């Protein structure tokens, strides 16, 4: 990708976010050229995204968005790229949506001739990274536990609903799950999903005792190699602004593509979603 089209990257990434959410959800419904997804109270797949590019989002669509989530007891949530039309932003504001947070999307062009092994040369001696067999129940559960460990406060047990979502994600078509081991002990994990020439990296965690030792970068390198193997021309990562994931991604060649806005509509009795 010599001439990077950030609008096209946003279109591809936002469409992928919607597709993955629908795959993991227990209930979903289309919204213009995007989707709404619900995975249960407290689920991180509770979101609407992927719209605002190629089709007008009407007032009726937005009313349906509000009803879809509020009727299920959770806050309506809209995840939007910076290319969202201003009238759509205004229509959401008119319905009481407010900004909750920003997320950053980073991208990295991929080339078949690049030696990706150099990206993990700072990792501890003896570190191995393996792609797990999705039919191996024990391996999939272990991946979900390690991958999800960084998304709950240290020392807390991963909720069963979160664990179940991780297991389902690891077995989703187009997804590859990787585990990093030292002397046979799992120390980190991360997944990636590939479709339409774009590989999206997600769910990366390194256990606290092994952080700041290059393990996350090694997990990124392994998934980039898988992306090239599958013919992707670009990889993407979504991160919170300024957190270790963003810094580690930039160290191995990722660049800022755009910031996403997460808008929610708060209401009495409506539960926020992660």
TrEMBL record:
Gene3D superfamilies linked = 3.40.630.30
Q: Which InterPro entries match?
A: Acyl_CoA_acyltransferase, GNAT_dom
UniProt-recorded name of the protein: GNAT family N-acetyltransferase
A Gene Ontology molecular-function term?
acyltransferase activity, transferring groups other than amino-acyl groups
Keyword tRNA processing in annotation = no
Q: Which Pfam families match?
A: Acetyltransf_1
Chain coiled-coil ranges? none
């Amino acid at each position: 990708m010599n001439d990077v089209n950030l609008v096209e990257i946003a279109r591809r990434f936002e469409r992928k976010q919607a597709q993955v959410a629908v795959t993991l959800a227990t209930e979903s419904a289309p919204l213009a050229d995007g989707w709404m997804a619900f995975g249960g109270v407290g689920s991180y797949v509770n979101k609407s995204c992927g719209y605002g590019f190629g089709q007008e989002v009407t007032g009726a669509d937005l009313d349906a968005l509000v009803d879809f989530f509020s009727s299920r007891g959770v806050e309506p949530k809209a995840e939007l790229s910076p290319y969202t039309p201003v009238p759509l932003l205004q229509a959401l504001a008119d319905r009481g949506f407010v900004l909750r947070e920003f997320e950053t999307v980073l991208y990295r062009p991929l080339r078949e001739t690049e030696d990706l092994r150099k990206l993990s040369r700072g990792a501890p001696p003896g570190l191995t990274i393996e792609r797990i067999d999705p039919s191996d129940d024990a391996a999939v559960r272990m991946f979900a536990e390690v991958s999800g460990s960084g998304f709950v406060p240290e020392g807390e047990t991963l909720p069963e609903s979160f664990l179940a979502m991780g297991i389902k994600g690891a077995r989703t078509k187009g997804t590859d799950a990787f585990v990093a081991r030292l002397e046979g002990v799992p120390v980190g994990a991360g997944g990636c999903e590939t479709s339409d020439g774009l590989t999206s990296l997600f769910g990366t965690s390194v256990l606290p005792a092994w952080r700041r030792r290059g393990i996350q970068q090694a997990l990124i390198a392994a998934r980039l190699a898988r992306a090239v193997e599958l013919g992707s021309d670009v990889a993407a990562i979504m991160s919170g602004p300024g957190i270790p994931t963003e810094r580690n991604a930039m160290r191995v060649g990722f660049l800022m593509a755009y910031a996403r806005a997460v808008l929610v509509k708060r209401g009495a009795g409506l539960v926020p979603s992660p």
